[in-house]
Each structure stands twice: as structure tokens, then as C-alpha cells.
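Page 42, continued from yesterday. The earlier attempt failed because a stray header line got pasted into the input along with the sequence. Redoing it now with the clean sequence only.
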Amino acid sequence: MVYKFACRGFPCTPYELERLHKYCANPHVPHRNCIVTFMLLIEMRLFAQHLDTALQDRTMQILLDNPIYWNIPNPITRPEDMAFIKRLHIPTRFLRTKDNGMTALHVMHAPDPKKPFDLKQLAQYALIYGWPGLENTWQGIVVDFAYRMHWRTLFGFALCRALCANSTGKTTLVQRFALVMAQPGLYQEAVATYAAANPTCPFMAQYGADVEICQAHVPDNQVWNFSNDDAIHILIHNRIPPDWVDHTYTYGMVYLEQQFHQLTMSLDIFQDVNDERLQRFSVYGTPPAIPNWDGWREISEEDRYCLLFKCTDKVAAHIDTEGTGLYYHIRMDLNVDVTAAGGPSTPPKTKSEPQPPVINIMQMEAATTTEAGRAQTTTGMG
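This time it went through. C-alpha cells are written below.
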């Protein structure tokens, strides 16, 4: 009965929108139909809010601007209402039944630390469990309101994590690598300096499906001595290709931008880094992406149902399901809109490019480590 008023799924005209609203508010309508109608209107409102205003149609604008649609009564008031939504909309192959009879999602395993460049697994896990876009440890990953993730930022996140050993100071180490990635041309200059100083041991970048990475191991009491120069030293020591670091520029830039949206005692440091980034940007421009590793990751069918499952739990608890963190508008051009300083104008990508191949880290256990003492010597902090 609900889709009699919206034959094409969402209401496509103001008249269809008005009829759906009246149907949802009608006390004589079956309770289950009210739930379906409410979920449909809420989903359309969220979609309209997160779409670029130039792409909103008249029905969306009325839904957002007319006060009668601002406080749609929520008919989901009982646990069985939430169970009905899950049973009606989520296929059983994506669900499991717990010992107490409650329905739950299948357990999704965390990404394998020995395969940090399995970006597909990383993206799915971060989307379902990491709440990317909020102020948390998944900083630097770009996700828009359609829950698409940008491959360049996923690759940058994975590379930073692969270079840092698990420790209490890992977040600080990742931050240093991210700030290096945010500086156009910085790594290339460092590689050129290294090559000039070591003519008998030239820099040879690693390529291929299997790479050897020596992770940075820094004692907890030395983490704050770890600098951008130390991060560059580790990148060179691991023979990370310059085009990989160019490719991670979007990750570094987004990571830097996100620091200005949260409380931090290091704001002056980030401001200095951003000033240097802008100076380098005027010289080098936007570092190029690796074409086959660029674009957006569209969410899968499983992702959609997992997100719907979590959304119903929030709706049942009358919690606002709208993302309040750093999400990006659908079809936003990252090069133009990510930072207040702006960037070069490039055509927005409208579909995903091929995802990066899986890259395995070889001989992690036997890898040579770089201790903080060496980093201090490098930076003159002995």
C-alpha cells in the first residue's frame, strides 16, 4: 500500500510527498505500514540533505524547507518494531541468531595486519565499525554521505599503518607520516638529497605485489621526539616509491584538515604545516594520483544492509542517525572543497576506478627496525 503513493520508490512529486506524509500520520493506517512510510521519508530527507543543492529537485527542496515535514512522528516505539524492520528489509544471509534468540550481524573480522594493503577489507571494516568521518582513530579517510570511500585516502591510511609497529605511540607516528604526505614535493626533494649524498648506493624504489617494509619501533618515552625528518628517513629506508607518496596527498591533506575540526593543543603546529603546504602547492601543484588506484569505492550490498541494521537500532532509540562528523557531500570534488584554502579545479569522478591490488608485507618479523635513538641522531636531538 505504501508504494501506491510512491510508485518509483521515493516520492518524485510534491503531491506524492504530501500523500505519503498524510498516510504516515493517519492513526487508522496499520502500524507496520506507518513504519515503512516513516523509514522511506527519513531516508529521502537524509539523502536530500547530503546531496549538493544544485542537484536537489523540487520535491527534495519542499521536504527540507516546509516545516510540516520537519518533525515526522516516529512510529518505532517498541523492540518488535525494530525487529520487524530488520526482518522485512535485511536478507537472512547477512544475519545470525545469537544464543538468546536476538538477531545480529555476522561477525566481521578485522583486517589482517600482515596484509595492510587489502583495501577492500579495510574499507568495509572501517565503514561498519570505525565510524569514519568522526573524531576517531580513522582520521584521514574520506567518506561521503553516500558512504563511498576515496581510494587515495584508504591507500594513505594503509601505508601509514604498515610503516608503524603496534605500540601506544602509534597514533603519533602515523600523524608524522600523514603530515609528510600533505606536503607536495617534500619527499621527492628528500629522495634527491639522499641520491646526491649516496652516489654509490642509489635510491631504488620498490614495486610489485610483494614489498619488504621495516616498521618503525619507537620506545614510548621517545615518541614525542619522532619528527617529520624521521618519517622521511623511514620512507627512504623502505624504498617507498615517490609516486606512492604523491598518491597519498589527499589522505595527508584530509588528515591535516580534520585536525582543525577538533580540540587539540597542537593547533599552531598544524597551522605551520598547512602554511608550508600552501607554499609548496604554489610550486608543485596537486601531486598526481596513480590512475588505476584512484576514484571512489562504492558500498556493496552487504554494506548497505549492515548500515541499515545499525540505523534501525538508532531509530528505535530515537537517536539522530545523521552523521555529525566530517562527511563530504555526494559528488564533491575533493581537490576544490576539502580545505578552506582550496585547490585546483578538476572534473569530479563519477564512478569508481579499479581498486589497488593487494600488496603483501614480506618478512615483517625479520625486518630491521629503526629505533628512536637513531631518529634523534638524525634530527640532532641526541
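Notes: Residues 336-354, 363-382 have pLDDT under 50 and may be disordered.
Reminder to self: strip header lines before submitting.
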